[in-house]
Specification:
5-stranded antiparallel beta sheet, alpha+beta
């Protein structure tokens, strides 16, 4: 595997320069400092807050007809005012994006471990800081006063410990201390023990155990290691989120158990874990294996100046997959807005689960880039919020089924947010159901579909109750609703309005949800009458329409947007991630989608990292490879920190994940009923290859191209099945595979 190293010539000065490590449960940010090393720590369930029984708002159901009548009568300013009053949660909600101190809560740092090694960094030579994503390992190397130091850091996927080794060519001294807000700290023998709890009763603990060939002593606020040639640290954080346990004992047991294992074996096991998962899929864009002496920050600076660095694009793509493994493998909760990494106690937007695109974007890459097990936590989480969403459906709307809105957390918050203009997107939970269907399409796992079908059915049940007839058109619409976070101008008053009836995104999501659920009933041989009811309802949803500028209309009326360069492109849901708009089946809408993107971009759209990543996916579906490349470069040069984290700004991991998915979509697509190879290849990616990308139908695809034309490819399948490959401007190959079969084509 090539291009898998992030290399730097100096320590990190900022959190967004530190190197991320993780095993799905634990996260660490390694600064690589010389004088005082800094390890910032995280644990996936270390969340403040608690479940808020009060959040669901019964006043909404009481005033639902009133809000609908105002919308249908064109009294939009009055409807907006009523929605801001009733189409919200009770209480503080997310605390204006900072749930710390509120019931909503926040994902929090587990604290920082400091290791004092030197009196200064003045005499350091040959410094090198590196993250090898193919091994899941960070390394620091330098010479200090003619003494050679090296450090390794990794997170064991089996022992659930962060492990650090510091070694020197001569003996040295180290002093360790831990910092975390509002905790009890103990320094006992060769261990540091941290214990704390939150208002909701969640308890947490951390333990650090030191093994060394030197002498270890403890003070009131530190451990001191003297006359050492080597120090190995074992670090664990534990909470009782999942089950009531003695967190102090569990954390201590974890680090002590880890010390009974051979360090080199733990390191090798971690290296093998990351290599085996990353090497399932690879891309080669014709760049050399980058072995130059330029650091990542220097390469990003050159990219900003207009340089081409395909090797950096290859690395960035694998880095997205690395972050997915590190933050979503074998874990309890899905990757949040920052994956599993936060250096704050009150994290921006609480690092929660925004389900009006952000968490969905996190998981676009898992199926297509061959990391399906990393999506399991999100799928389980969808089922989790569906259970809480039943109460919200009943109390907030007097409807059956389940519903969830813009924001959620580990405590089952499914009510609208505290502001209707952004927090009342009620199709968010229904959008999550698309990931259930995608798992089925990529896996053909009927047992999985049967297990998750009730979640899809429950989402449908809510909208069967909630949809109402628009008296002006006769269509069934969601009302009151909104197009995520966007606004239009009231044609009567000129006021800025968000509330509407039947926005295009709602209609697209519901058409897809109903269609997928109908198809599920056929596959599973169940619920025929329910499917018939869904079909009748689906056929009365408003169609996707083209507006006066030749664009996809965002609302049922061709309103003027108040922010034409808005970061959300919700009206294009049908283009991506859905397949309602394709070149072969809906050419008029396909062309209108191009106009919509151009209009957004001409007004400054794509200015956030995740929005730019979505645009890459759009252009991939449109087959516009040069535009994809242009926005990859824009993402790297304008919205990427020096450690390759995505800059919203601030850091938000969905841009990393979304761009990774978009690059895969440039190389293989399967959403239109066939497998298409290199559908959006930029001219500069003249020669290249990919292996191990996945296609719907349960297929694994590899291909090579020269001069922009496919010269060989293969398709294999564990379960077998029939399909069609399209390549080189319309050439086709139909195939039918038996179990564990494959087909190869050489041109």
């Amino acid at each position: 595997m090539k291009n898998t190293h992030l290399y730097y010539k100096s320590p990190a000065c900022e959190w967004t320069e530190a190197l991320p490590l993780g095993n799905g449960k634990l996260g660490a940010m390694v600064y690589g400092s010389v004088e005082v090393e800094q390890l910032q720590l995280n644990e996936e369930t270390l969340w403040s807050g608690w479940h808020d029984e009060y959040a669901d708002n019964p006043e909404c159901a009481e005033h639902l007809n009133e809000m609908r009548e105002l919308i249908f009568a064109g009294k939009l300013t009055e409807a907006e005012s009523a929605a801001q009053k009733y189409l919200v949660c009770r209480g503080d909600g997310s605390g204006d994006g900072h749930g710390y101190g509120h019931s909503y809560g926040s994902f929090e740092s587990a604290g920082q471990l400091f290791i004092k090694l030197h009196d200064s960094d003045a005499d350091v030579e040959n410094y090198r800081r590196e993250l090898d994503i193919s091994r899941g390992e960070a390394m620091i190397e330098y010479t200090y006063n003619s003494q050679h130091f090296e450090r390794q850091y990794f997170v064991s996927p089996t022992k659930n410990c962060i492990i650090a080794r510091i070694a020197s060519s001569d003996d040295f001294k180290a002093e360790l201390h831990y910092e975390r807000e509002n905790v009890h700290l103990e320094y006992v023998d060769d261990e540091i023990i941290m214990t704390g709890s939150f208002k909701n009763g969640l308890e947490y603990a951390g333990a650090v155990k030191v093994i060394s060939d030197g002498s270890i002593s403890n003070g009131a606020e530190n451990l001191v290691v003297e006359n050492a040639h080597e120090i190995i640290l074992y670090i664990n954080i534990t909470t009782d989120y999942k089950e009531p346990i003695n967190v102090r004992a569990a954390s201590i047991d974890a680090v002590r158990g880890c010390t009974e294992c051979d360090y080199n074996e733990l390191r090798h096991e971690t290296n093998e874990h990351f290599y085996s998962m990353l090497s399932r899929a690879e891309i080669d864009l014709g760049a050399d294996d980058y072995c130059g002496e330029l650091a990542i920050d220097e390469r990003l600076a050159l990219l900003k100046a207009g340089a081409d660095d395909r090797a950096l694009v290859e690395l960035y793509w694998q880095f997205g997959r690395y972050l997915m493994i590190s933050s979503s493998y074998n874990c309890v909760l899905p990757a949040n807005l920052q994956g599993i990494w936060s250096g704050d106690y009150s994290t921006i937007w609480s690092a929660d689960y925004h389900i009006n695109i952000n968490i969905q974007m996190n998981y676009w890459l898992t199926e297509i880039t061959n990391l399906p097990e990393c999506g399991d936590a999100f799928l389980r989480y969808i089922k989790f919020i569906s259970e809480f969403g039943r109460k919200t459906a009943e109390k907030q709307y007097n409807c059956g089924g389940w519903v969830a809105h813009t924001i959620t957390n580990p405590w089952g918050f499914t009510a609208p947010g505290e502001g209707a203009s952004w927090g009342s997107f009620m199709c968010a939970g229904a959008w999550c159901c698309e990931h259930i269907w995608e798992r089925w399409l990529f896996s053909n796992d009927k047992k999985f579909l049967r297990r998750y079908y009730p979640v899809m059915r429950g989402a449908c049940e809510f909208f069967l109750d909630f949809l109402c007839e628009d008296p002006n058109t006769g269509y069934l619409v969601t009302a009151p609703s909104n197009s995520p976070e966007n606004h239009y101008r009231d044609p009567s008053t000129g006021e800025t309005i968000s509330i509407c009836a039947g926005p295009t995104m709602d209609n697209s999501i519901l058409y897809e949800l109903f269609s997928n659920t109908i198809e599920s009933t056929k596959i599973l041989g169940i619920d025929k009458d329910f499917a018939s009811k869904l079909q009748k309802t689906r056929d009365r949803l408003p169609p996707i329409r083209v507006g006066k500028y030749g664009q996809i209309m965002e609302w049922q009326e061709d309103f003027e947007e108040t922010e034409p360069g808005h970061r959300h492109l919700s009206m294009l849901y049908g283009l991506h991630p859905s397949n309602l708009i394709t070149k072969t089946r809906t050419p008029e809408l396909f062309d209108a989608a191009k106009v919509s993107i151009e209009r957004r971009l001409s007004s400054g759209g794509g200015h956030t990292g995740w929005s730019r990543a979505w645009i890459i996916n759009f252009y991939a579906r449109l087959g516009m490879g040069d535009e994809c490349e242009k926005h990859i470069h824009a993402l790297l040069s304008k919205s990427t920190y020096n450690n390759l984290f995505d800059a919203h700004p601030p850091f938000q991991i969905d841009g990393n994940f979304g761009a990774c998915a978009g690059i895969a979509e440039m190389l293989v697509q399967s959403h239109d009923g066939f497998i298409e190879l290199i559908p959006a290849l930029p001219a500069s990616w003249k020669d290249g290859s990919f292996k191990g990308l996945c296609a719907r139908g349960g297929f694994i695809v590899s291909a090579e191209w020269k001069d922009g034309k496919v010269c060989s490819f293969s398709v294999q399948s564990e379960h077998g099945g029939a399909g069609e490959v399209r390549y080189n401007g319309g050439r086709k190959l139909s195939f039918e595979l038996s179990a564990n079969g494959s087909v190869q084509k050489q041109m």
